[in-house]
Amino acid sequence: MLIPLVIAAFVGYFLGAIPFGYLVARAYGINIFEHGSKSPGATNVKRVLGKKAGNTVFVLDAVKGALGAGWPLLLAQWAAHRSVATTGNAAGWTVFTANVKVLTPDTVIPAAVAGLIFAVLGHSFSCFTRFKGGKGVATSAGGFIVLMPVVTLIALGVWLVAFYALRYVSLASILAAVAIPAGAMALHQPRPLVVLAVLIGGFVIFLHRANIGRLLKGTENKFVKKAAGAPSVTP
Prior knowledge:
The structure is a single chain. Helix content is 70%, strand content 0%. It has helices at residues 2-16, 20-27, 42-49, 51-87, 94-99, 108-124, 137-147, 149-166, 169-186, 191-207, 209-217. The chain has two domains: 1-144, no CATH class; 148-225, no CATH class. The longest helix has 37 residues, at 51-87. The protein is mainly α.
């Protein structure tokens, strides 16, 4: 089992480490680490550069998580179709395991879990930006929509309600991070996915610890829609 987990972790980390927030901001002539909250996450990019740039970063960061978690599942699905087509084996693994001997039915889900965990770590501690990064919300969401779509939709609903009711992105993200493991347990997801939800949910909350402090003090900034015009890039 170790080989597929190591491969998934390696691929996941380097996918997650791609600093899309930094790269998109650079395309606008901005070093995002010097503006706003100095985070390369989608929320800060949106505050500094506007809706289009922020949404672009969110989608790209989500894709990193989806790919990190999804490639073992796609590879397994391809192997199943290939095996059925060539051998008629409905189990779908004969040809694949005989020739590759890396991914097996027992390692698909653990590999997907490892891929997402390390994609989030890569996003938050990118080797390309001196181990600085975002809080992993979009990357986590992308992976979870692949692994647990119903649970992710529940968490998205929690995020939307919290955000539009209170206008705190951080609080909405924290509540969504709680909703993911709660939903996974309530819907009786496989144990590896429940453990994944607990780990990543806890990690996202940990990265929001400064925001939690500001929320408790009443000093956290609400998300205020910018007036029409060029976005501000003042630090």
